[in-house]
């Protein structure tokens, strides 16, 4: 009977090990999902802080720059829409609609800050300067919280799509989380640096440069850090200007210097 008991023990160990792995995978999904919700609540707090600052900002700008009425109305409309979506979510992870509205609101507020540069009286107003400072700090905290949230979403979604944890995800209906991204090309644009131009700039006036447009890639395509280098502005190391010969006096009596003379 011993030869029968050994296979049964092996089967039992395999079953117990499989159940233990499934329980661990399920608990891991629950932990990651709760971490996503917690990290999103931190972002949501800063977003609500921005909701509180926007009305005062709008009224201050309106008092000095009434011509920006369309921009101000757009900001107020997006703020109300974002607040409604926030109330519907009740602290849960954001939907794609919420992320899109928040992105539009960010772009509108950033555009307003650029437009007010044309109003010197507004730029010197102490109330506006304080609102601008608080809004900048809030945007910085939103950006930091967004990076932390997206990192948790990436880890969670990777487990959902990976084998064998995808079987647990599909069996217990764990859905992929939504990223909170910024798709504005101005935000994603990286600064252009040309070492040749830095080395040989001299006293020549700096010419304006236009950054190359950001190209979208497929979800499964890895980023190529070398892409776009051929079209980068500036001189490369192989294109540096050759040294010009030094003009030397010619005529009778000219002798080249002898450095070996005592």
TrEMBL record:
Stretches of the chain forming a coiled coil according to its record: none
InterPro entries linked: LemA-like_dom_sf, MamQ_LemA
Gene3D superfamilies with a match to the protein in the record: LemA-like domain
Lineage: superkingdom: Bacteria
Gene Ontology CC entries for this record: membrane
Sequence ranges of Basic and acidic residues compositional bias: 239-251
Compartments where located: Membrane
Keyword presence, Translocase: no
Residues passing through the membrane, by range: none
Keywords per UniProt: Membrane, Transmembrane, Transmembrane helix
UniProt region (Disordered), positions on chain: 198-262
Topology class, membrane: Single-pass membrane protein
Major site of localization recorded for this protein: membrane
A Pfam match: LemA
Family: Belongs to the LemA family.
Protein name, entry field: LemA family protein
